[in-house]
Amino acid sequence: MYSKIFKWISWILIIISFLILVWGSLKGWEGGDGTKVDVLLRWAYFLLIVAVAAAVLAAVVISGLNNPKSLIKGLIGIAVVLALCYLVYLASSSEPLVGYIGEQPTEKTLKMSTALLNITYIVGGCALLSIIVGEVLALFRKK
């Protein structure tokens, strides 16, 4: 049942993406403020938000229906990730760019971009660490 719903949603989003691609190719990619990639970036942001929301909601709903005890573990995991993102945001700096000649971004933009970079570093480091630990554990388990 869930697979049919996700399949229909996927097809609808693919068709809308194709229509935006055709529309932009025929009309041009000028956005509201005159930038060329504004339309595509906003659609990509929307698709990213839909994908993350669908993944989280599907995991919560399906695990909640199949095993209510695992729902608590999933919600704790989501809370930990949100708390980590919030702590990284609080620890991020909003110092002005050094040596940048153009107009300086706002403090909020600088803080958000620094936080996103730091989260990317943390996630990448955790992925690398998990690969190394997994390979080391696999060596010991084979013997």
In words, what does this structure look like?
- It is built from four helices and no strands.
- It is an all-alpha fold and 143 residues long.
- The chain folds into two domains: 1-78; 87-143, no CATH class.
- α1 runs antiparallel to α2, α2 (38-66) runs antiparallel to α3 (68-91) and α3 crosses α4.
- The N and C termini lie far apart (43 Å).
- The mean pLDDT is 83.
Rounded to an integer in angstroms, the radius of gyration calculated over CA atoms is 21 Å
User: What oligomeric assembly is this protein in?
Assistant: single chain
Spatial separation of the terminal alpha carbons: 43 Å
**SSE series:** HHHH
> Helix/strand-derived class?
mainly alpha
Q: Quick one: biggest sheet?
A: none
Give a brief description.
By secondary structure, the protein is mainly alpha-helical. 80% of the residues lie in helices and 0% in strands. It has two domains: 1-78; 87-143, no CATH class.
Task: Note the topology.
Elements: H1 2-27, H2 38-66, H3 68-91, H4 107-142
Helix pairs in contact: 1-2, 2-3, 3-4
